[in-house]
């Protein structure tokens, strides 16, 4: 199954997450198909904390990809989520 989830990066105590499309059988930080955004929980000042490519997420959902609960929460929190994107998950 294809899943849209977060893959952790960054340094110790400085997390950075890539939002990726991956096969659910691969490890969290392992091989992925496509990067569709990022989340930086430690963003300060003028740094961008969250970027989501909605068109690519819609495409992957149309191909059968599922969103994880964390990705759904981030999309709702950011306000960029459209009802059809979250309703399909």
Structure commentary:
By secondary structure, the chain is of the alpha+beta class. It has a single domain (2-87), classed as S16 Ribosomal Protein, Chain: A (2-Layer Sandwich). It is built from 3 helices and 5 strands, in the order ββββαβαα. β1 (2-11) and β2 form a beta hairpin. It is globular and about 35 Å long.
Tell me the layout of helices and strands.
Layout: E1 2-11, E2 14-23, E3 34-39, E4 50-52, H1 54-62, E5 66-67, H2 69-78, H3 83-87
Parallel strand pairs: 1-5
Antiparallel strand pairs: 1-2, 2-3, 3-4
Brief sketch in words of this structure:
The chain is an alpha+beta fold. It is built from 3 helices and 5 strands; from the N terminus they run ββββαβαα. The protein has a 5-stranded mixed β-sheet with strand order 4-3-2-1-5.
Q: Alpha-carbon distance between the termini?
A: 13 Å
The CATH architecture name reads 2-Layer Sandwich
Number of domains: 1
Helix and strand element order: EEEEHEHH
**Helix-strand makeup class:** alpha+beta
CATH topology: S16 Ribosomal Protein, Chain: A
Mean pLDDT, as a whole number?
87
The CATH superfamily turns out to be: Ribosomal protein S16
* Beta content: 25-35%
Strand order of the largest sheet: 4-3-2-1-5
In the CATH scheme, the class would be: Alpha Beta
Shape: globular
Largest sheet: 5 strands, mixed
Query: Roughly how much helix do the residues carry, as a percent range?
Result: 25-40%
User: What is the number of strand segments?
Assistant: 5
Computed Rg: 13 Å
Low-confidence regions: none
Number of helices: 3
